[in-house]
Amino acid sequence: MIRVVLPYHLRNLAGVASEVQLEAAAPVTLRSVLDALEARYPMLRGAIRDYTTQQRRPFLRFFACEQDWSNESPDVELPEAVTAGREPLLIIGAIAGG
Length: 98
Prior knowledge:
98 residues, alpha+beta, Ubiquitin-like (UB roll), five-stranded mixed beta sheet
């Protein structure tokens, strides 16, 4: 079971608590987790990744095991602690301003 923690605005959109649990196809990659998340919560399609390019939306970041995975290839396998459910994949809403 993969644990995913969503930021407030995505939680409200999906109507869920802060953490959701998903089954993702092996190998467990960022792409497979996001595919599973969007399949289970279709209202999130386009909110995390662009519909056409599948690129991460600006102002969203991905963290796993205290490391930033936002600029990694979506096909790189996530750490074993995430795939085993001991650590969550965090989707964080970035803050900008000045």
